[in-house]
Specification:
The protein has 105 residues and is mainly β. It has one domain. It is 0% helix and 47% strand. Strands 2-3-4-5 form a four-stranded antiparallel sheet, with no helix packed on it. A three-stranded antiparallel sheet has the order 1-7-6, with no helix packed on it. The protein is globular.
Length: 105
Amino acid sequence: MDKEYIEIEKALIPYRFEIELGAELFELEIQYNQIGDYFTIDLYKDGEVLCYGEKIVYGEPLFSEIYDTRYPAPTIIPIDESGKESRVSWDNLNESVFLVVMNYE
């Protein structure tokens, strides 16, 4: 199993970027809710919106409740590999909690 990390540049939020997941190109748009201290992701493929406002929840794979062949094949999980964190927040995203892309090949 290979692991990669998706770098989130908090200073640019809200912003959109392209990323290759599996063998396909997607766009992710990152948003932040300051009142609730949480992040969301919009997912696009070929200019089409696949998902708006997927909340980034610690330990839960993104887009896991959607079964659609247009979605990324690799699993993306927000985790702290040291095991110290239990939620995703402004203070810990890309510091101790990372979006880990799990490629099961």
